[in-house]
């Protein structure tokens, strides 16, 4: 088997495994966060969580597929490691940026929800006072 093909197979196995692991971690831990953001609406939290995970898979697996091809021919074992380190390093950086982007957006949504809850008075108005003349 050609060394370039071996590098491609290893790259795909590791990249897809990492993408699945990160997506599952985000899904499991993000569900609790989304439930808080959406004020306990579990059904909506599950739906949004699922949509985020699908989008995460599409973007990352699409990037992995696009980044698969290389213009270099791998001639020895050292070349396999060099090619894999570059490709997997870029994939890990993309996964990290996607993760931080998700956390950033969800935190902005959560902060907005917290601000809205804080602006609501704990008790509704019970009476009103007429303006004083001459004041």
The overall average pLDDT, rounded, is 83
Helical content band: over 70%
First-to-last CA distance: 92 Å
Low-pLDDT ranges? none
Strand content: under 5%
What is the alpha-carbon Rg in Å? 25 Å
The gross shape turns out to be rod-shaped
What does the main sheet amount to?
none
User: Which class do the helix and strand fractions yield?
Assistant: mainly alpha
Query: How large is the count of helical segments?
Result: 3
Structural commentary:
- The structure is a single chain.
- The protein is mostly helical and 135 residues long.
- The protein has 3 helices and no strands.
- Helix 1 (3-37) runs antiparallel to helix 2 (42-66) and helix 2 (42-66) runs antiparallel to helix 3.
- The N and C termini lie far apart (92 Å).
Spell out the blueprint of helices and strands.
Elements: H1 3-37, H2 42-66, H3 77-119
Name a few traits of the molecule.
single chain; 135 residues; mainly alpha; 3 helices; 76% helix; rod-shaped
In short:
The protein is an all-alpha fold and 135 residues long. The protein has helices spanning 3-37, 42-66, 77-119.
């Amino acid at each position: 088997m050609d060394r370039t093909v071996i590098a491609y197979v290893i790259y795909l196995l590791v990249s897809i495994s990492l993408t699945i692991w990160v997506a599952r971690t985000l899904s499991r831990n993000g569900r609790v966060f989304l439930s808080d953001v959406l004020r306990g609406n579990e059904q909506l939290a599950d739906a949004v969580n699922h949509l985020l995970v699908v989008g995460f898979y599409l973007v990352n697996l699409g990037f992995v597929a696009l980044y698969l091809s290389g213009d270099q021919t791998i001639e020895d074992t050292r070349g396999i490691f060099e090619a894999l380190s570059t490709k997997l390093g870029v994939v890990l950086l993309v996964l990290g940026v996607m993760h931080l982007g998700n956390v950033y957006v969800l935190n902005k949504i959560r902060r907005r929800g917290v601000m809205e809850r804080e602006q609501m008075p704990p008790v509704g108005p019970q009476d009103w006072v007429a303006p004083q003349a001459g004041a």
